[in-house]
């Protein structure tokens, strides 16, 4: 069996690690990096820290509008698929790399397998929602991380090829926290925080939050006014728009360069609460039992909200302070196991093999 795995962004690099390891132990994998994330701290460092193999192909697409980026990936990837003649094209999540790879493979009549299938925020204003819905409807195997995702697919008439395998980040995080705790003092140096001092870990990167000056100003002012110190690794998009709009955080917000994955796990393990607009970090926070305030009006991880571990909040000072205070209070007594047991990578590999035999 030959699998072409297509990745292009930080969440995909993280998720592919255990799956790639499982496939390469038994089959042939061709790893394709689209180049959607190309900054060292957003790309190369993840391959080193997660022990990912070097990509056999780097398409070098880089930044651009959604249409230009998606179209360029399709043009470059088509050549790779025609040359390699894979049995499967494996895609992850909801990025432009995801939809571009899925469309290219489907049009070449190559079976598509989608990891993180069935997630829905029910907000079509999000580019990610469009990407994930279309990818699900052209996929042959749909690897759902939760029962809620399976139910979403069923509501859309997708029942064939659906496999509830659990979430690959469970594999990634299992045992990793203990391994990286020795890095805490080193990571803390850049934050000007003392060991034992409570802090919030924040990430802001979505265009809906960064690209409108009024909304970004509200986020900057709200985070700066919190009583709890905030550690914020600055995503390249956030840094660019802060400069464009002439905005700057107050002293309460300790900005640091984009963090590597291992350093993010260190900060996540050490923080009191998480403030984010990231989908992946919401889930990682839940797995590590960190209450979260999500700066969005919807989320694909609805179960974390329903369980009381995650709060959706707009960035107006009053409601935001209330959400942060609630998150800092005693966490919910229950912590349901939404995301399954370790071994997700092996289950995905076995399902690909089984489906191919049929």
Architecture overview:
This protein has 358 residues and is an alpha/beta fold. It folds into 2 domains: 2-174 and 342-357, Glycogen Phosphorylase B (Rossmann fold), CATH 3.40.50; 176-328, Rossmann fold, CATH 3.40.50. The chain is built from 17 helices and 13 strands. A 7-stranded parallel beta sheet has the order 3-2-1-4-5-6-7, sandwiched between helices. Strand 12, helix 15 (302-306) and strand 13 (310-312) form a beta-alpha-beta unit. Helix 1 crosses helix 17.
Notable characteristics:
alpha/beta; Rossmann fold
- Gross CATH architecture of the largest domain: 3-Layer(aba) Sandwich
Distance between the termini: 13 Å
Would you report the number of β strands? 13
Radius of gyration: 20 Å
Summarize this, please?
This protein is of the alpha/beta class.
Explain the layout of strands and helices:
Layout: E1 2-7, H1 10-26, E2 28-33, H2 44-49, E3 57-58, H3 66-84, E4 88-92, H4 96-107, E5 112-115, H5 127-138, E6 141-144, H6 147-155, E7 162-164, H7 168-173, H8 176-180, H9 184-188, E8 200-203, H10 207-210, H11 213-224, E9 230-233, H12 236-245, E10 253-256, H13 261-270, E11 273-276, H14 279-287, E12 292-294, H15 302-306, E13 310-312, H16 317-328, H17 344-357
Helix pairs in contact: 1-17, 3-4, 4-5
């Amino acid at each position: 069996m030959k699998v072409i795995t297509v990745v292009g962004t930080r969440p995909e690099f993280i998720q592919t690690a255990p799956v790639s390891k499982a496939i390469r132990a038994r089959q042939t994998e061709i790893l394709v990096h689209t180049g959607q994330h190309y900054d060292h701290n957003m790309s190369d460092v993840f391959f080193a820290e997660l022990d990912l193999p070097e990509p056999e192909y780097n398409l070098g697409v880089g930044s651009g509008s959604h249409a230009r980026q998606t179209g360029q990936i399709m043009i470059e990837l088509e050549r790779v698929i025609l040359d390699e003649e894979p049995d499967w094209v494996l895609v992850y999540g909801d990025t432009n790399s995801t939809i571009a790879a899925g469309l290219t493979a489907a049009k070449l009549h190559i079976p598509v397998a989608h990891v993180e299938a069935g997630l829905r925020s029910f907000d079509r204003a999000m580019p990610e929602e469009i990407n994930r819905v279309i990818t699900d409807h052209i996929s042959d195997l749909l690897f759902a991380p939760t029962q809620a995702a399976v139910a979403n697919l069923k509501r859309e008439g997708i029942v064939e090829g659906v496999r509830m395998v659990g979430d690959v980040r469970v594999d990634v995080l299992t045992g990793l926290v203990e391994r990286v705790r020795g890095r805490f003092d080193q990571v803390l140096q850049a934050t000007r925080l003392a060991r034992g001092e409570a802090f919030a870990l924040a990430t802001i990167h979505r265009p809906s939050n960064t690209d409108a000056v009024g909304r970004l100003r509200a986020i900057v002012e709200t985070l700066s006014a919190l009583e709890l110190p905030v550690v914020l690794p600055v995503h390249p998009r956030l840094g660019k728009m802060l400069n464009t709009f002439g905005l700057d955080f107050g002293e309460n917000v300790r900005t640091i360069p984009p963090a590597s994955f291992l350093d993010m796990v260190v900060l996540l393990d050490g923080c009191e609460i998480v403030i984010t607009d990231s989908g992946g970090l919401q889930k990682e926070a839940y797995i590590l039992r960190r209450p979260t305030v999500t700066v969005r009006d919807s989320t694909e991880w609805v179960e974390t909200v329903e369980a009381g571990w995650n709060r959706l909040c707009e960035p107006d000072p009053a409601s935001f302070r209330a959400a942060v205070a609630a998150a800092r209070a005693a966490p919910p007594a229950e912590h349901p196991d939404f995301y399954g047991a370790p071994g997700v990578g092996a289950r995905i590999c076995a399902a690909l093999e089984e489906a191919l035999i049929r």
